Amino acid sequence: MASDYYNPADLRKFGKITEWSKELGEAFFDYYGKVFEEGALSAREKSLIALAVSHVVKCPYCIDAYTKDGLERGITKEEMMEAVHAGAAIESGATLVHGVQMMNKYNKLSM
Amino acid sequence: MATKSLKAREKELANTNKQLEILSGPLFESGELPFFRDRLESSGFEALRPGTLEILQINLGYMCNQVCEHCHVDAGPDRKEIMTRETMRQCLEVIRTTGAHTLDLTGGAPEMNPDFRWFVEQASEAGIQDFIVRSNLTIIRANKKYHDLPEFFAKHGVHVVSSLPHYTRGKTDKQRGDGVFDKSIKALQELNRVGYGTEGSPLKLDLVYNPSGAFLPGDQNALEQDFKNALKEDFGIAFHNLFTITNLPIARFLDYLIASENYEDYMTALVDAYNPEAVKNVMCTNTISVSWDGWLYDCDFNQMLGLKVANKVQHIADFQENILNNREIVISQHCYGCTAGAGSSCQGVVT
């Protein structure tokens, strides 16, 4: 067995998941491809969204892939870092908004 | 950032045989990635052969005022290989008789050849439809004697094709050296001033973009739009077209890929992006590349790898189009660079 859970070389093998489930694998990659085409949002905008989400879901493969994708699209490092902060702000906001639940519970239980 | 060529630094990769050895090395030998010839075959192509000659690309020498990190020519101020007037005369003979519609002068910085202006004057009278000079822009600002190049180009109807890796200072200077961006911007403004690149102007000004790192170029149209918007908004600069060119794993770019441990991933990305549609229009099928010393190659990349045309005619002095056109194009694994994605050539994408 490999000694690491994550191996950068495994990203290149992503397409192989189709070998063990052709129909679902192909359906996924078709869908994936369509999602990132130019649409109401530009492919460039979607690339930045994908980069932000990659950080939120903490996927090292996705971070590698969308940093490279951003470079290919001429996206600057400032734009990339702002996207990461947008993701991080939502993630920390999601934690903090539960503070209201804590306050509600606290108030309910307290005399 | 290096200030000398690989050759001047006596680096191993200044040796073309060493480069070819790496390009056919373990990554391909082990079967992990297919050799270019095998990939061509498995997608239904026989050996590559030229069609009609359309572009004559002449390299006036490897001397350059810049030492760009990605340069496949390994050009720089220390390179002394430049074309003599005698070889230029042999080229002019061919330019006057060839059916090719495009003449493409490159380098190094072709303007640094002391006979550059003489050659342009002579060649511009040969009735070539599209006369390109590949100018790195900073040369125009490098020295007073070059300040009038925009006027000189305009006088001879030269089509200027210039490199600019990005519309931001940081990315440009990282690849090409400190101060390159500001000089390039100034040079573009000078070219605009004499009429180059403005809408509807017959004085054509195109930009070349190649990625500043181990990644492939993105969509040419989208990048062109981004470049146009940013250069217009920030500097009031206009240009006609943007050509995206993929960096090929040759000379300094190969050296960079290996030193930064990106070689395997980059080659894998090129092979994964192999596009049979791009093979149909690769530039080696309509171009001949001439080196500073008059030898003939299928493309500028093969020139830098020392791979001469596989033909009885190998030198500009013996040029015979009908004989030369009957040949097989010399290939190696660097060729994946021209067939990746939308394809890549000195005129940008090929699909």
UniProtKB/TrEMBL annotation, chain A:
Instruction: Give the Carboxymuconolactone decarboxylase-like domain ranges.
Output: 23-101
| Domain of life, per lineage | Bacteria
User: Mind telling me which SUPFAM superfamilies this protein's record contains?
Assistant: AhpD-like
Quote the protein name from its UniProt record: Arsenosugar biosynthesis-associated peroxidase-like protein
Q: Which organism is it from?
A: Robiginitalea aurantiaca
Automatic annotation (TrEMBL), chain B:
One Pfam family matching this protein:
DUF3641
Taxonomy, top ranks, is: Bacteria, Pseudomonadati, Bacteroidota, Flavobacteriia, Flavobacteriales
Q: Classify the source by domain of life.
A: Bacteria
What InterPro entries does the annotation carry? Aldolase_TIM, ArsS-like_C, rSAM, rSAM_ArsS-like, rSAM_sf
Cofactor(s) the protein needs: [4Fe-4S] cluster
Q: Which UniProt keywords apply?
A: Iron, Iron-sulfur, Metal-binding, S-adenosyl-L-methionine
Name the SUPFAM superfamilies on file. Answer: Radical SAM enzymes
Q: What is this protein called?
A: Arsenosugar biosynthesis radical SAM protein ArsS
| UniProt keyword annotation of Phosphoprotein present | no
Q: What are the residue boundaries of the Radical SAM core domain, all occurrences included?
A: 58-197
Q: Where is the Arsenosugar biosynthesis radical SAM protein ArsS-like C-terminal domain?
A: 216-348
